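The aim of this short unit is practical: by the end, you should be able to scan a pair of folded records and say something sensible about each. We start with the first protein, listed as its amino acid sequence and then its structure tokens.
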Amino acid sequence: MKSKHSRSFFSIVNQKYPTLPFSIRGFEDTVGAKVGVKECLEHDLLMDYPVLTDKAGEYVAQFKATVVVQPKSTAIICGAKALAADGIESDKKIKNEELAALVASPLWKQEKAKKEKK
């Protein structure tokens, strides 16, 4: 990289955020950070994290969880279990009954262990 700001920015990113997304607001020198982001993206040193959008007038919800995928089952370690807690209420309701049934169904299928006969 040619710019001193870009090299400094990339060094800070590697120290503070080696694998995580970050915001330019977290840097003291925002002008240098903007220059650094542009040059790092040009050299494929960073991957951009685009803002997800949907159709105008549509509702969007995003849930994050840590999931462990095992050979015979999948387990939620943290995150999504809090969503299943009672007491969370909203004034918004799903009007489409088919979609409401899908949302009410369990998130993960539970596989039952088969017992071998002796």
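Turning to the second protein, read its sequence before its tokens, just as you did above.
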Amino acid sequence: MSNELNTTHMMSGNSYSLEQIKSLAPSVFTTDKAPHLTDKYVQTPTSRVVEDLMSMGWQVTKAQEVKARKGKGFQKHMVVFRNPEIMIKGANGDDSFPQILLTNSHDGKAAFNFRVGIFRLVCSNGLVISDADFNNVSIRHTNYTFESLQTKINEVIAKLPGLVQKINLFKSTTLTESQMADFATKAAALRNKQTVNIMDLLRADREQDNGNDLWVVFNRIQEKVISGGYGYGRKNRKARSVKNFQQDIKLNEQLFELAEAYL
């Protein structure tokens, strides 16, 4: 049941090069500020932060940007990082990697924002943590230095053992049938106003997700809410996956807060 933090395991899967990131999210490499901004605005391209994190051992595993008709090149974007030397070791091969989700824009509306997430190898599923110990960390463009980034990332790493403890607390919390149904109903309502087939949300698709402890129930529900495939409405239509990364992050944070209510 217990998890442990492993700092020597090598990550499986591919990481993106700078050229690949540029093809996925060109706004990451924007060096000019948006035309409406004054000379007082200090432009720090996200690519600088990406390269600094890479130099610290973090690899890019995902990059997206918001589709934009206006302000193209300056829109909000996200880059996801994992460190191949930091892994949360789980039972029966249910290993996971802490993630750092970096969001930013070059239109003067956002600072560099860092969130903590978890990537589970068994389902290629990413969770975003919403917890008092892992509040979002921001660095303003004007205050950005490699040293400020290093300080913030070290703060996150220092808190990872607490994340392992939280996962173990989820695993040691058993839910009743009615609690699981209640969880699924409330989780579905975060995305759908119509009636949802909660049995679709509670169904385990892999051996590691069988059971009724809070951790596996949360993972089953979270994966379905984000990835879709469950039935909803009178015609039992199949929900589509969430494509917008801003909606993805918001739903993830809401689901984590919902799960904590059952501790």
